[in-house]
Write a structure and sequence with these properties.
Blueprint (H helix, E strand, L loop, with lengths): L12 H14 L3 H15 L4 H14 L2 H16 L6 E2 L16 E2 L1 H10 L9 H15 L3 H16 L8 H16 L2 H11 L15
Antiparallel strand pairs: 1-2
């Protein structure tokens, strides 16, 4: 029986983030940047998609402005081409992805909100880690006004589309609050709106951002 994919005991997140930055910065054009993100997520697979979110968080918190801009621009290209790197989650209430073949593919922000909202999700992030990771991802995407506008529209559309079992009611409410607050305010206002929709507030951890 083939062993499921697993992360190393101590992944080198900084090295992975640098590889992503270098690839985005030196890509020839928009199509190549989008393809780079797509290949990275395909190589990780759904089970390790949170690792991709970790890499984005490291870029957001430790990257230079130029590094953040390069990755944000790649996300813009992916959004515009409909190739946003996504991970597939089990339908709400299912314990494993295998139990839910209809699971929707979710991009970084919506995946993080759905992961936190699902109370029985495996390895779900703590409130403090969710708070910090969400702020990091929002700060990264907000490096590009185009990406911010496109992504906010995407989140609103996801919140309003007919239920398919992937997103819980609380996750949809969080996405709607996120989209509205992000359009009218900055990343912090959006984080506060999401936490308010969940009925609480997070505490920013002092350690580097990580979801596990």
């Amino acid at each position: 029986m083939r062993e499921p994919p697993r992360l190393k005991a101590a992944p080198d997140w900084a090295a992975a983030a640098q590889l992503l930055i270098d690839g985005c910065a030196h890509a020839a054009d928009a199509a190549e940047r989008a393809a780079l993100l797509e290949r990275l997520c395909w190589s990780l697979g759904d089970q390790l998609y949170p690792a991709f979110l970790n890499v984005l968080c490291v870029v957001a918190e430790q990257g230079t402005p130029a590094a953040q801009a390069a990755v944000a621009e790649a996300l813009v290209d992916a959004l515009r081409s409909g190739r946003l790197p996504a991970g597939r989650r089990a339908a709400w209430g299912a314990s494993r992805l295998a139990e839910s073949p209809r699971g929707m593919a979710l991009g970084p922000l919506e995946y993080l909100c759905a992961w936190y909202a699902e109370p029985h999700g495996v390895d779900a992030p703590s409130a403090a880690r969710f708070d910090r990771a969400l702020l990091a991802l929002l700060n990264l995407v907000s490096q590009s006004p185009g990406a911010r506008a496109l992504y906010a529209a995407r989140l609103q559309a996801l919140a309003e589309q007919p239920l398919d079992g992937t997103l819980s009611r609380s996750a949809r409410a969080a996405l709607q609050a996120l989209a509205a607050a992000w359009r009218s305010g900055g990343p912090q206002a959006a984080v506060d709106a999401v936490l308010g929709s969940f009925g609480g507030s997070g505490l920013r951890a002092l350690a580097p951002a990580a979801l596990r």
